[in-house]
Amino acid sequence: MARPELLEQIYTIVAQIPPGRVTTYGRVAKMTEGATPRMVGSAMRHLPDGHGLPWHRVINASRRVADHGGATRQRDKLRAEGVVFDASGRVAAERLWP
């Protein structure tokens, strides 16, 4: 798990992702002072109950929802915000933030 100050940076960045947009674990990591994409994924997996962060807006580098237990829920939440997936499950590049 990431150091508390890195977690805070990750959470602050994720909180800024606008509805209907997505970013990648790697993009979030690059905006921090030393987190890796894996740390960002771990931070999203271990969010405390009632956090309110838009975790569902963070996807993998191939612009797909990562394969995990909440993947169906994540796709549903993104679709509800107007995010469209192509036939191979990818999100259009123009949906990437920032």
TrEMBL record:
Q: Which residues form the Methylated-DNA-[protein]-cysteine S-methyltransferase DNA binding domain?
A: 8-83
**Record keyword Zinc present:** no
Keyword Protease listed: no
Q: What is the superkingdom listed in this entry's lineage?
A: Bacteria
Q: Which terms are listed as keywords in the entry?
A: DNA damage
Coiled-coil blocks:
none
Protein name (record): MGMT family protein
